[in-house]
Amino acid sequence: MPYEFKMDRRVAFAETDMAGILHFSNFFRYMEEVEHAFFRSLDLRVHEASAVGSMGWARGEASCRFMRPLTNEDVVELHLLVKEKRAKSIAYEIVFLKDGEEMARGNVTAVCVGRIPGEHRLVAVDMPTEVDEQVQVAPPTLFEGA
What we know:
The protein is about 15% helix and about 45% strand.
């Protein structure tokens, strides 16, 4: 469905801390990886550049609640759900599962931004039509507590 995406990711040794636990910052990297894979699955791009400027997805907000540690060589299923879609942003919920058990749950709001050539600032812009047409919001019953 165009409101959810799942992928597996193996924890690499270089991503762990001295205790062999996945460093907290990598949960945010994993959330970005699954978002990009979701876009690719729909034949969409997360960044476009042209002579008139560029467009991408900046983080407006990101959070993660950690329940259990992930360690080196663990295979984690990343389950992305589109929680909300507005003209200029998409909010995701990403659940981290190991052997069906929830390990962490993250939320990311990605804001569609553009950069005008010669200017060094980003401006929120409406998402491209193809993104708006393809990305759908998941039914509320799929979220925790529904």
